[in-house]
Every structure is written in structure tokens, then in C-alpha cells.
Specification:
Layout: H1 7-10, E1 17-23, H2 26-36, E2 83-93, E3 102-117, E4 120-133, E5 136-148, E6 170-172, H3 175-184, H4 195-200, H5 211-226, E7 231-237, E8 246-252, E9 255-260, E10 265-273
Antiparallel strand pairs: 1-3, 2-5, 2-7, 3-4, 4-5, 6-8, 7-10, 8-9, 9-10
Length: 277
């Protein structure tokens, strides 16, 4: 483990909480449907996944880090590793949200775990979220965030990606969809919209498709299959999906995932029937 990881200091963030509030509006739902694609969403007054658009951190520009995320050391611990990524987590949908609901989200840093990976030290931070309406729990979530060392800047930029053709059952995240999803979730992470940054600094082949966007598509597919949205599911990012790359939605039993045309799996959910599973 890296000597730069002062776990005693980072553990000072354990148990930190914050509360945010927002209202579910018809306009937000319209923008969400237009961004994700209505054909991918399960029938519901408020589509599954819209909760990630509620009460985003309204952080001043001067309080952002170089990657576009809020600077570390506020609610989240100041992990001294260069890259931060959405790793997955757990979601439990107990009851649907409705238009006009005043939603209160309470968030708590529940664990900070150092690990070792192929690229060096890793730190996993878990944040528990509970969304309530008039005191009733509607959604519970554990959000897993992984921090890893920054990749060395590539000597040359990767060659431009030639977008793949969309075929039956395939989904392609184009730059406009990624920009709109970043906007609707108020996500400033530059890997999703800043091509020179994502290729020249973080070394990806192109703009990276959001983990929660892929999770939204998968959970709605699961809800269509189940015939209801009262689900408990576990989600996990497996490999980056780049804008312009085609991915097929696959399923086998209780597992659903996106798979690129070369066979690489990018994101998966494992489904448990019912909110109390």
C-alpha cells in the first residue's frame, strides 16, 4: 500500500453525513426520457434511474478539482489518488417516486477500504443514500467509488474511434447523449465530454459512457422483464464503454449486462426479486 495513503486521516471521514432535497417535476422527467430514450424505459410515472438527477451537488466552479469533480476533502475523503471512478453498488427500490414528490436524500460515508490492484493501490469509498418522501423510504442505495493512481499521459493520442453501426438490440452512446446525461445529472467529470482531456490526460480511447447511464438502461430492462419496479439489484462496472462503441444488452437468469461487439463486458446488474431481498 502506498505510503501516501494516510488511512488514519481518511478514516476521519467515516460517518460523515449530508442531506439534500429536490422535487420531482414533469419537466425533469421529459428531459430524462429524451436523454435516455423512451424506448429503453420501463412503464412508470417516474422512470427508474431518475433519482440520480435529483439534488446534485451545486458546487461553485472555483471548488472543482482538475477532473471536473468537486474538490476532495469536503463530504468525500481527500484520497490522494489521481483517478476517481463509479464502481457500482446496490439499489433497493421500495416504492415508486411520483410527480410532485418532495424528495429528501440523506447520504453517509459508510466505509473507506484500501486494496491493491494491478495498477497499484486502490481505495474504495462506499456512500449510503436513503431517499424519503414525507418520511417514507422510497429508495436505498450503496454507491461504491473507486480511487486509483492516475494513468501516465499517453505519448500520442489514441487514433480517432470510428463509430460502429447500430444494429438490432445494440446501444451506442454518442457524444450528444453523454453531454445531455452529464447536464441532467450535473456531472462535471471531464471524461464524459472533454475529448482532449479524456484522451490526452486520462488515456482513454474516447469519451467514456457513464456507469449510471448504463445501469439505468439495464435496470429498466430488468423491470420490463419483471413487470414491476420494486427491485433490489447489485451493479458493477467491469470495463470502460467508449462513445461510438456498440454494446448489446444481454441477460442470463438474474444477471443482465452490456457486452461490446468484441465480447468485452462493460457493466452488469444482478437482480433480486422484490425490495426486501
Amino acid at each position: 500500500m502506498s505510503d501516501d495513503l494516510d488511512m488514519d486521516h481518511l478514516n476521519g471521514w467515516l460517518g460523515r453525513t449530508t442531506t439534500a432535497r429536490d422535487v420531482v417535476t414533469a419537466g425533469l422527467i421529459d428531459r430524462f426520457r429524451a436523454t435516455v430514450g423512451a424506448e429503453w424505459l420501463a412503464p412508470a410515472e417516474v422512470p427508474m434511474g431518475l433519482h440520480w438527477c435529483l439534488a446534485p451537488d451545486a458546487v461553485e466552479r472555483s471548488d472543482l478539482g482538475p477532473d471536473g469533480h468537486p474538490a476532495r476533502g469536503g463530504f468525500l475523503p481527500p484520497v490522494p489518488l489521481g483517478n476517481r471512478m463509479w464502481a457500482g453498488g446496490m439499489l433497493r427500490f421500495r416504492a415508486p417516486l411520483r410527480i410532485g414528490d418532495a424528495v429528501e436524500r440523506t447520504s453517509r460515508v459508510s466505509s473507506i477500504t484500501p486494496k491493491s490492484g494491478r495498477s497499484g493501490p486502490l481505495v474504495f469509498v462506499a456512500v449510503d443514500h436513503v431517499l424519503r418522501v414525507d418520511g417514507e423510504v422510497r429508495i436505498e442505495e450503496r454507491h461504491d467509488i473507486v480511487y486509483r493512481p492516475a494513468r501516465p499521459a499517453p505519448a500520442t493520442l489514441p487514433p480517432p474511434l470510428i463509430p460502429e453501426a447500430a444494429g438490432d438490440g445494440l446501444w451506442i452512446g454518442d457524444p450528444v447523449t453523454l453531454q445531455r446525461y452529464s447536464a441532467i445529472t450535473f456531472n462535471g467529470h471531464r471524461i464524459h465530454y472533454d475529448y482532449p482531456y479524456v484522451t490526452g490526460v486520462e488515456g482513454y480511447a474516447g469519451l467514456v459512457v457513464h456507469g449510471p447511464l448504463q445501469a439505468t438502461l439495464l435496470m429498466n430492462a430488468a423491470a420490463k422483464r419483471a413487470g414491476h419496479c420494486a427491485l433490489t439489484l447489485h451493479q458493477r462496472g467491469l470495463s470502460p464503454l467508449i462513445a461510438g462503441q456498440a454494446a448489446r444488452l444481454c441477460e442470463d437468469g438474474q444477471r443482465l449486462w452490456f457486452q461490446k461487439t468484441d465480447g468485452t463486458e462493460t457493466y452488469q446488474i444482478t437482480l433480486e426479486q422484490g425490495p426486501d431481498a
